[in-house]
Design goal:
This protein has 261 residues and is α/β, with parallel strands linked by helices. The protein has one domain: Rossmann fold (3-Layer(aba) Sandwich). The protein contains five helices and 13 strands. A hairpin with a 2-residue loop joins strand 3 and strand 4.
Length: 261
């Protein structure tokens, strides 16, 4: 089977960034992952995983995040670039803006959030949940590629599939959260638990609840289609400029994480 050290996780249709890719399926101890597309970007083999399945049929709270991440791990993936649709809480962030978050808050409730349910007890450090090395390349590339990118933001992840209430959004704003989405957790932490680098680039689809009159899925789809070409260009250019060897600490995430008496 072909191997890929770089993966993109995103929404349906973004596999187009790979041209005409090969499609494979990967079984894992946590279930069958969605089809994975393998293609080339600047001579590098890249895997694309549609987070919600090829037909976007799996809601965010039912995504099998463990199977998704473990399938990429089996392919040899070391670096993940994720795309996430978000709503803006910070009034200075607007629809269609791209955001590269630097931290996150987890408000999910019922998702399988770890690979380490058994011994040894494992406490993975997430002081820098987003890989600083990829994040730096992504931000530099975004500044050259798109008109505006927000390079510091706290993303709060909610359970879904319902959208948030205005009171929840006000609470998140007081907590220091800038954008809200439903798909980044536990995806980011699971990647860290397997010593994979992970970074997110978010596209803002709307102002959050209470900041505009109404929210709709149609609005999300419309903005996603509008930003897709920009995102694809940004992802290609970021992959192109990634250094060959990792110099971050993501690959050492488990060194002192396991509890031993």
């Amino acid at each position: 089977m072909r191997k890929a050290e770089i993966a993109v996780i995103g929404g349906t249709g973004q596999e187009k960034l790979l041209g005409y890719p090969e499609q494979i399926r990967e079984g894992t101890p946590f279930g069958l992952a969605p089809p994975i597309f393998l293609g080339e970007v600047d001579g590098k083999t890249v895997a694309f995983m549609p987070r919600h399945g090829v037909e976007h049929g799996v809601p965010p709270h039912r995504v099998n995040y463990r199977a998704n991440i473990y399938a990429l791990h089996l392919l040899g993936v070391k670096r993940i670039l994720a795309t996430n649709a978000v709503g803006a809480i910070n009034p200075n962030i607007k629809p269609s803006n791209l955001v590269v978050p630097h931290d996150l808050v987890d408000f999910t409730k019922s998702r399988q959030s770890t690979f380490y349910d058994d011994e040894p007890v494992t406490h993975v450090d997430v002081s820098q949940i987003f890989c600083p090395e990829i994040r730096s390349v992504l931000i530099r590339t975004a500044r050259r590629t798109v008109a505006k990118v927000v390079d510091r933001a706290v993303l709060v992840c909610t359970e879904g599939p319902r959208l948030e209430t205005p009171a929840e959004i006000r609470m998140f704003g007081r907590m220091g959260c800038d954008v809200v989405g439903m798909t980044i957790m536990p995806e980011a932490v699971l990647a860290r638990e397997l010593e994979m680098c992970y970074v997110s680039v978010c596209f803002v689809t709307n102002m959050a609840a209470g900041m505009q009159k109404r929210l709709s899925s149609e609005e999300l789809v419309r903005v996603a289609k509008k930003t897709a070409p920009v995102l694809q260009q940004l992802l290609r250019e970021t992959v192109k400029h990634l250094p060959t060897k990792r110099r971050c600490l993501c690959s050492q995430a488990l060194e002192k994480a396991r509890f031993r008496c």
